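Database export, one record per block. Field names are fixed; values are copied verbatim from the stored entry.
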Amino acid sequence: MTSRFAYAAAIAAFIVGVRWGTGAAGGSDSSCYMNEARLFSRFTTHIEQPLAASAPWPRAAWTFTPAGHLPSPSRADAIVPMCPPGLPILMAVARWIHADLLVVPLLGALAVWLTFVLGRRIDSPLTGAASAVLLACSPIFLYQIVQPMTDVPAAAWWVLVAVLAIDTQGRSRQSTQNPQNPQSKQISVSSARSAFDVRTAAAGLAASMAILTRPNLLPLAIVVAIYLARLKPSSYDRSRRARALERVKESRTTQKPRNPQRKMLEVFLRVLRVLRSTSYFFTRSLAERPAASFCAGLIPGMVVLALLNWRMYGSPFASGYGSAADLFQLTNAAPNLERYVRWLWQTHTPILALALVAPFLVPRRAEAWLALALAVATIALYLPYRVFDDWWYIRFLLPAIPFLIVLSVATVARIADASNRNARQDRRAHSPSAISASSAVALGVMAAVLGPWWVYTARERHAFDLRDWERHFVDAGRFARDKLPSNAAVLTVKHSGSVHYYSQRPTVAWDTLDPSSLDRTLEFLRDRGLVPMLLLDTEEEPSFRTKFGGSSAIGRLDWPPMARVARTLRVYDPADRARYWSKSPGR
């Protein structure tokens, strides 16, 4: 019954992501991810930009680089996206069936369902159901599931990692039951293989995708590895491993064949025996060491990330965002902590603070400690990061939100349960994860009160308005594609990412130019057969006039625009100015 609530919450999250999804290559983040996905779908990593190599002014490469991108460090005539590759890889695959904009809503639905599974593993099915409903109502979750960005996917991957790791612990416990029973030994072997070989490797692969999506959260994998290192195999598996080792030794010391005519065949068979025994020894070694199996699953993601970094940024350890010293400062920790606590308090109420006491109350304390450690580690990793002033930057903490919700809900359930003596006795008599009627009522009230309040908060903070707000990015890009000449070069800053994505016209970031170089830039573009166009938001026009108006007549923007796009965009053709003033009286 409780799973139906989780299914409904997951479906609702998917519907929200599709119905209110922006679908826009808008700001620097979303345009970067969508441009990178298109590149990957074409099996390339660079965008050709020959203008950057021939422009005569300093740092010309940045002039022709749209938002969310940077000049290639290895090629003067190319630019590359600056964002991590995890989400673009999935979107690139989905592009082949025209479903790239469904990736984030699908991963959001997966995150909601996995939150239910996590709550069920840590405490009870009812805890899982209430947690899934609350995650689907979370203001920051709703704010991000409608945007093609990595916050929701990163949360989904790390919850999947935790669920698989916790499931491994549960299977490990089952595999050690009844060790004296021969039939139980066979079950033990099967369970151990299934638990250690499949689940820990799957957890590692999920962590690979999580790291590809958010590389700076790599330390979370260390938390999971430490948790898995606590697991121990059954004695029966240890004896099988010892016998496998003996077979390897025996196969290596086998006598040489006496018949020379059969020597090649015997050598071949001996090699097969060695390979078989070594393979068995290796796989069982990983099976008996779940942390090692988990780390083996990390290898594909780490290799792909290193290769792409080397290809795009010139080094396996480079990043499109710059060096860690530029991004992280210890002096940022205090202001970020104050902001994150205040924003979480304002948007989610203080209920999330109950997560801190959950490991002392829930029956599966080791699993609760893992969830809390992952949440705390996520927050700690972002404390030294850059300081921002908008509430929605708690999106960085979204991978921690499912864990905090599950632990908070479990705490409420156990507090309500502890108030009922009969429920405590019934739980001890039947199952430590059983939940009383008082707990069910408490969780029902919690979901019924917090859920609508969180949705209301999301609405007040414009989670459902983003589709309309981001529409001007799509309009600008499509106007450049459909209405401007095919050889147009668009001078724009705010809309450079969207213009590049939708029209694939070259963009010129006018904010990188010297105040006296506007006319020279326009002449440079015309000499190469391009038609320069100005695409400006109304809020950008004062800055444009201030920067270029004193040294260029074009910089004054004193002629009518050739077109108005949406409500705030204006498109100017510099060639229209001379025609306009030549027809004006008294000029």
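Remark 1: Residues 235-288 form one domain.
Remark 2: Residues 51 and 77 are 7 Å apart (CA to CA).
End of record.
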